[in-house]
Design goal:
This protein has a single domain, classed as 3-Layer(aba) Sandwich (Rossmann fold), CATH 3.40.50.450. Helices cover about 45% and strands about 15% of the residues. Helix 4 packs parallel to helix 5. It is globular. The N and C termini lie close together (about 5 Å).
Length: about 150
């Protein structure tokens, strides 16, 4: 892994205050502590909040450019179904050949029988060498392994 390996974080965690606090104080801190440069779409879009209109084309374009710069993607898969934006980011990363590590701590069942989450999302995570894990330590270790030599 190079000293500045870029990891794009795909997640819906910036949409609410409680999840945003955990995202910033735990997830991003742990990624930075593991030596990754974080490509954070939530930091790039301060205007995405209640009462502020979003420019979907500009935001989508900026996020796509960050995914293109990334060595890998860490995708938060919590929820009864994977967030549609996160699923789109996973598909785009997979199409670019970027490995994706799924991180899911949600105890609720999700996805089709035999799949941890939506089977197509799980396919794109696994097809690029990634896995879905409930452990942040395991997710960080897998990202380091997948990015070795980048």
């Amino acid at each position: 892994m190079s000293p500045t390996t870029c990891i794009y974080v795909a997640s819906p965690l910036g949409f609410s205050v409680p999840t945003r606090l955990w995202y910033e104080s735990e997830l991003l801190v742990r990624l930075a502590g593991a030596g990754f440069e974080i490509l954070d779409p939530w930091a790039a879009e301060p205007g995405v909040e209640p009462g502020h209109p979003a420019d979907p084309m500009a935001i989508g374009e900026k996020n796509a450019r960050m995914i293109e710069r990334a060595a890998a993607v860490l995708a938060v898969l919590d929820g009864t179904d994977v967030d549609s934006g996160t699923a789109s980011e996973i598909g785009y990363a997979a199409a670019l050949g970027r490995p994706v590590v799924g991180f899911r701590t949600d105890l609720r069942e999700s996805g089709e029988l035999g799949a941890v989450v939506n089977l197509q999302v799980e396919y794109f995570v696994r097809a690029g060498g990634g896995r879905i894990t409930a452990s942040l330590d395991e997710a960080l270790a897998l990202l380091a392994e997948l990015c070795r030599g980048t």
